[in-house]
Amino acid sequence: MERRARQAVRRHALHGLTAMRFGTVDGRLVLVKDGLAIDVAEHSDLPADVNAALARFDELTAWASQTQAAGKPVDEETLGPPVPHPRQVFAVALNYRPHAAEAGFQPPEEPLIFTKFPSCIAGPVTEVTLPPGKPDWEIEVVAVIGRGGYAIPREQAWSAVAGLTVGQDLSERAAQLRGTPAQFSLGKSFPGFGPTGPVTVTPDEFDDRDDLAFEARLGDEVVQHGRTSQMIFPVDDLVARISAVCPLLPGDLIFTGTPAGVGNRRTPPRYLQPGETLVSTVEGIGEIRQTFR
């Protein structure tokens, strides 16, 4: 109990931020509170565009902390992706040791970064048309960039992050592994292959932002589970290393890696089938749900 109290004090003092959950409805930024969505642009001088609003992150959190605006009922069916149009989408390969082992690789000494093309980004509850080949699942915790910046020191990295959301790095393995080197970005960027949501939660809302439980279920079977504390390269380390090369922009996404349990490393391999539903959950954030056709 005492430890939780200390954590609560720390998270509310952290960076001077106010705990906030935000998403989108019809592409417009909303603050989500108690099952209600408050349209940010309707009740403030902040823009409806998510990227533009995140560029004014201090103003956004200050407004969110004091607004008394009335909201409208909202559910996961209504919400779109928390960032509908990220300019950059980074992803990290082999960031959990058990996944590196099941894939037949040694844990990397440096983060292995690739991209998902932004056109694959989708909302939390979707139908995904499966392409021919070997479609697979990869639950991931996704970092949403707020202030961003270039060459961000690790000790300041969390202040560049607007929050965390749930994601799936859906992957068509035949396309991904075709050729030498492999075509990671193309194999992971079919329409709907980057579902995210249901909301982004600011880091100060978590008891421990570096230790969140997560799991993916395919039907009644838990196919993946883990904790973000098991990452080889934690969120703040990734932000520092990526921003040392690429300036991070408001609304950018970082898919931080997946644990063991992907379908193509099973014996025999197991791939997504039409009619199946994949539910991905992260502690303190919520769930996303994809049905395949």
From TrEMBL:
Keyword Hydrolase: yes
Molecular function terms, GO-annotated: hydrolase activity
Residue span, Fumarylacetoacetase-like C-terminal domain: 89-292
Keywords assigned by UniProt, alphabetized: Hydrolase, Metal-binding
Record Gene3D superfamilies: Fumarylacetoacetase-like, C-terminal domain (3.90.850.10)
Listed InterPro entries: FAH (IPR051121), Fumarylacetoacetase-like_C (IPR011234), Fumarylacetoacetase_C_sf (IPR036663)
Taxonomic superkingdom: Bacteria
SUPFAM superfamilies: FAH
PANTHER family: FUMARYLACETOACETATE HYDROLASE DOMAIN-CONTAINING PROTEIN 2A, FUMARYLACETOACETATE HYDROLASE DOMAIN-CONTAINING PROTEIN 2A-RELATED
Protein's recorded name: Fumarylacetoacetate hydrolase
